[in-house]
Amino acid sequence: MKSNIHNEIPFIDRFFSSAIFVLRHAFPNSPSLESARKKNVASIITKLKEQKVSAFRTLEVERYDELSEQDFVKNYLNKGLPVIFTKGAESWPCTQKWSLDYLKATYPTDEFSLIDSTGLVEDSYDMSEGKDRPVLIDKIKATDFVDALKKGDKTYLRFCPIMETHPELCDDLDHNWLKKYRRCFLGISYQTFIGPMKRKTPLHSETTAFFYIMADGEKQWTLYSPTALPLINPETEGRGYNYTKLNLEKPDPVKYAGFEYLTRYNCHLKKGDILFVPAWMWHEVESLTNAWGVSYRFTSLRGFLKHPAFFIVRLFFSKPSFLEILYYSFFRSDIAKRKENLLTPKIYLKK
User: Fold this and answer.
1) How far is CA 235 from CA 24, 120, 126, 132, 246, in A?
2) Quick one: which of 70, 83, 148, 232 has the fewest CB in 10 Å?
3) pLDDT band, very low/low/confident/very high, at 1 (cuts 50, 70, 90)
């Protein structure tokens, strides 16, 4: 994997596209900014063609059976590149215990929220109708959820706070390993994903870096550099995450002109694998089987500040605001009190 993947688009064009991205949040629906964006994209396409960049270039995320802390920090964390620790969690209790049957047997009467948030749900399942906040569609008991999945239902528990309501599950992760490899200046959080095969979370990017631990099942990941911003053309709605309406299988050649010149990373994550995803990296995820995974999130200061446009938008133009995130995470840690911020996990300082 080449370490200059973030520099495929010339620096001057990345600079202008970042400035336009910020300004479009400050002045939404501005025709002049949209015109400037299109000119910027045209310039990028011309230069990439001159460089004879091949279309639809794909790289596999690098895998290691063993990767030292020093090599991980130097070659992946600091450079903002993804990497897989193959079977890194194979011996952890979570991969030994967690499954749909375990969920049903251990927490049969627990109710979990079904959350639908624009940009994070496939069009055919999207019920949020463009609202500004994640939408609580319904609640479902663990027993009913598991039984429905086994009958072919496609209900998906995204951002499930089960590790907050049942902190004993946190003990099923190897925190010594996680502390060793993370670089964290604020705190850590958990987001759990339990769902059926053939469900997908469309292309998006998030504030924090994270380790994704594949406790059960398999998933296919597609990732792009944060610097792909101008050709991915994300929506500018000021949410707590960045998303695009780009369909990776059938990209609109007008709205996403030049997308074919971006290099993508692919990886097939299997049970026991740990995937590192840098802050702000674009990713789309599809479940290949019924699956249970957990995202262990941490704020790496270097990664957080490495892409200033995303940082500025997140700090000043997003809802919930960064200060609200801290408030809901630290002072309203009861999940019931976070109904307006369902994607806001509790932040732990001492884990």
Assistant:
1) 10, 12, 16, 13, 10
2) 70
3) very low
- State the Cα–Cα distance between residues 258 and 126, nearest whole angstrom: 27
Decide: 170 and 190 in contact? Cβ < 8 Å: yes
So what's the pLDDT on residue 209? 96
Flag the least confident range among 46-55, 157-166, 268-277, 327-336.
Answer: 327-336
Contact 89, 209 (CB under 8 A): no
Full-model pTM: 0.93
With beta carbons less than 8 A apart as the criterion, state whether 291 and 197 touch.
Answer: yes
* pLDDT at residue 136 in the model: 67
Asked whether 295 and 269 are in contact (CB, 8 A), the reply is no
Which pLDDT band holds residue 303 (cuts at 50, 70, 90)?
confident
CA geometry: angle 301, 307, 313, nearest 5 deg: 95
Residues 6+ apart with CB under 8 A from 246: 203, 232, 233, 252, 255, 256, 259
Least confident of 76-90, 100-114, 323-337: 323-337
Mean pLDDT calculated for residue range 276-294: 97
Three-state secondary structure along the chain? CCCCHHHCCCHHHHHHHHHHHHHHHHCCCCHHHHHHHHHHHHHHHHHHHHCCCCCCCEEECCEECCCCHHHHHHHHHCCCCCEEECCCCCCCHHHHHCCHHHHHHHCCCCEEEEEECCCCCCHHHCCCCCCCCCEEEEEEEHHHHHHHHHCCCCCCEEEECHHHHCHHHHHHCCHHHHHHHCCCCCCEEEEEEEECCCCEEEEEECCCEEEEEEEECCEEEEEECHHHHHHHCCCCCCCCCEECCCCCCCCCCCCCCCHHHCCEEEEEECCCCEEEECCCCEEEEEECCCEEEEEEEECCHHHHHCCHHHHHHHHHCCCCCHHHHHHHHHCCCCHHHHCCCCCCCCCECCC
- Residue 224 pLDDT grade (very low, low, confident, very high; cuts 50, 70, 90): very high
CB 170 within 8 A of CB 329: no
